[in-house]
Write the structure tokens for this entry.
Amino acid sequence: MMKTSSIALLVLLFHTILSLSATFATPTSFHDNFLQCLSLPSDPSIPIYSSNSSSYSSILQFSVRNLRFSTPTTPKPELIITALDESHVQAAVICSRKHGLHLLTRSGGHDYEGLSYVSDVPFVIVDLLNLQSISVDAKKGTAWVQAGATIGQLYHNIVVKSRTYGFPAGICPTVGIGGHFGGGGYGALLRKYGLAADNIVDARLVNVDGKILDRKSMG
Ligand SMILES: Cc1cc2nc3c(=O)[nH]c(=O)nc-3n(C[C@H](O)[C@H](O)[C@H](O)COP(=O)(O)OP(=O)(O)OC[C@H]3O[C@@H](n4cnc5c(N)ncnc54)[C@H](O)[C@@H]3O)c2cc1C
């Protein structure tokens, strides 16, 4: 029988510790102020979709895994920000906080209650679907994975590099790294190697101030 080793994982996890809500001003002033904030301190090319954008619906639906939360009456986001790099996540956090907006983070969209894409107050989604890079170092037995990747993509990338390493996480390959690791993550290797979260050896987090923290900076 093949012996499976656990691969320690370095995770690039965009953890936006933010749950602010407020009543929006008029849509126009909201859009103007928020968009102005996003474009000033950072890259002006942050991809942002409003309900007027032709891709808005397809991007919103892309990661909706519970169709109970995909009806005509389901509350929809004011904007969807599909971050292309860390600085876009930082900008989303900083500007949401500045304007008192409710910001939801979505990785794989498998939340049972749709918490990454539905809210009963007006909200904005920062969607990590573009952040899917995975870099496996089989010699060190570690990998960096971005939060928008799926656990299936992680398993695939590991097996391409090594026939003996694996990673102890869930069964469903389309589950997102961000929500899965943040909640623990259990699967077939649980009894021997514990949860996915037990095997994370470093992480890059965006805190509520928009700063990036990692293992070293967090002591
Ligand atoms: C079909 C199915 C199979 C599953 N199988 C398993 C299994 O085998 N083992 C197991 O342990 N679990 C399993 N789960 C549960 C799954 O791990 C959780 O629902 C997990 O939170 C989904 O993560 P996600 O990124 O896909 O979801 P999302 O809906 O994107 O996120 C879930 C929650 O995490 C937050 N979040 C997402 N990304 C980030 C981020 N980068 N930083 C901070 N917060 C973030 C969201 O805001 C939301 O509150 C399964 C779920 C489904 C629907």
